[in-house]
Structure formats: structure tokens, C-alpha cells
Amino acid sequence: EVRLVESGGGLVQPGESLRLSCAASGFTFSSYWMSWVRQAPGKGLEWVANIKQDGSENHFVDSVKGRFTISRDNAKNSLYLQMYSLRAEDMAVYYCARDSLTAPGTMDVWGKGTTVTVSS
Amino acid sequence: DIQMTQSPSTLSASVGDIVTITCRASQSINSWLAWYQQKPGKAPKLLIYKVSGLESGVPSRFSGRGSGTQFTLTISSLQPDDFATYYCQQYNSYPRTFGQGTKVEIK
């Protein structure tokens, strides 16, 4: 079964850091671009970042550039999102998603999400 | 960044209705347009890619059309399982951007 499981969410204060992880199984992780997408409470979807199969290329939404980094460990079938200087507007459910091979740029497998709460 | 605007924001419909959701891009995205379905508390699900390509396992009552800047998602005969929020997404350029969503409610 193709599966993505996020972890690492929690409650942090503004300005603090957090590292999210995503464990992949059931497919050849190293063959896929991977993405993070977030959803603030009661709001729509926002694409956050993605990373190429070998980690050599990545892209970010402007609102997190310089504060978030994305990385992967293909040997561990894992994707990461390191978040620094967290703000109230970063509070959201963070989904890990696999970029489709059929339609690169779309996301065909999603995890259930991990919740990040930023509050003092 | 390319802005994606969906209309309507909310739609009330009955089982069996034909439902159409519109998505407009702030500039041409060629055919790089996808649609997702999301139910409360669940992750999104890819329905359609490249305007009209049906993702594996998605019922044929879902269809997409359009080009350039204007696109539509149509559900030909609304089923109880289709009450959800739908999002369009462009993947013509970075950052990938989504529409604000259209909630399909029971009338």
C-alpha cells in the first residue's frame, strides 16, 4: 500500500523552530519529487515547497523562503521540512504529498497531515 | 505569482444535479490545471490533471474543460459522496497555487 505518514507537528511559540518528517512506503521514494502543502484552520490549500528526486533542486512559496528548508533521505524513504522563525500565519495542517509521475506538478498521494500550532 | 480564482465559493445542489465549478487564472497556464476534492478532516484527493485527464479510480461523472485562463470542473450527476470542497491548482509555474475552494453542499 502506498502510504505517507507525517510527524513532528506540535505547539510552538512564535520565533521557534520545528522539524516535520514524512515517512514514505509502498513505492520507490527516490523516483519522485515530493511536496509539502499546508492548510490553515478553516482555509484553503497552500503549496509550500517541493524537492527533486535527488535533492538537488527545490522550490518554495515566497512566504517561507529563508525560513523553511526542505530535505530528503532516500535511504530512509523520508522527507523533511525544517521550519525556523515560525509565525502565527504558519499555523496549519501540513501535508506531505507525492508529485505524480503521470502529471508532474500535481500531487497524487497525500498523507493525513500533521498539525503545527504557533501560539504564545 | 499566478492567482487562481474559483466561483462560486459555495454551491448548493441535490443528488442527481449537474454541477459546474469555474476556475480562472490570472495569466495563461496553458493546460497545466488540476482539480482536487477534499472532505472535512481528510487530505485532498487528485481528481483531474492537465485540464481533463481523469486520475485512476475517479468516476467518469467528473470531467474538466478549458484552456489558457478559464477552466471548469463538471460533475454530471451529483452523488452523495461528492459533497465536498473542490480546489483547482495550476502547475504552469512556481509557486504552485490553488484556488480558494468551492464547497458543494446538500440543497
What do these coordinates show?
The complex is a heterodimer of chains A (120) and B (107). Chain A is mostly beta strands and 120 residues long. In chain A, 0% of the residues lie in helices and 51% in strands. The termini of chain A are far apart. The mean pLDDT of chain A is 98. In chain B, the strands form 2 sheets. In chain B, strands 2, 4, 5, 6, 9, 10 and 11 form a 7-stranded mixed beta sheet that branches. Chain B starts with a strand and ends with a strand. The A-B interface holds A 35, 37, 44-47, 50, 59-62, 95, 100, 102-108, 110-113 and B 1, 32, 34, 36, 38, 42-46, 49-50, 53, 55, 87, 89, 91, 94-101.
Key terms:
A: 120 residues; mainly beta; 7-stranded mixed sheet; 4-stranded antiparallel sheet; 11 strands; globular; B: 107 residues
Write the layout of secondary structure elements.
The complex is a heterodimer of chains A (120) and B (107).
Chain A: E1 3-7, E2 10-12, E3 18-25, E4 34-39, E5 45-51, E6 58-60, E7 68-73, E8 78-83, E9 92-99, E10 107-110, E11 114-118
Chain B: E1 4-7, E2 10-13, E3 19-25, E4 33-38, E5 45-49, E6 53-54, E7 62-67, E8 70-75, E9 85-90, E10 97-98, E11 102-106
Parallel strand pairs in B: 2-11
Antiparallel strand pairs in B: 1-3, 3-8, 4-5, 4-9, 5-6, 7-8, 9-10, 9-11
Integer average pLDDT of chain A: 98
User: What does the radius of gyration of chain A come to?
Assistant: 13 Å
Which two chains form the greatest contact, residue counts included? Answer: A-B, 24 and 25 residues
Number of strands of chain A: 11
Order of helices and strands of chain A: EEEEEEEEEEE
Instruction: Kindly report how far apart the N and C termini of chain A lie.
Output: 40 Å
Strand fraction of chain B: over 45%
Count of DSSP-assigned helices of chain B = 0
Distance between the termini of chain B: 35 Å
Q: Tell me the number of strands of chain B.
A: 11
Give the biggest beta sheet of chain A: 7 strands, mixed
Shape of chain B: globular
Helix content of chain B: under 10%
What does the oligomeric state look like here?
heterodimer
Strand-pairing-aware structural class of chain A: mainly beta
Largest sheet of chain B: 7 strands, mixed
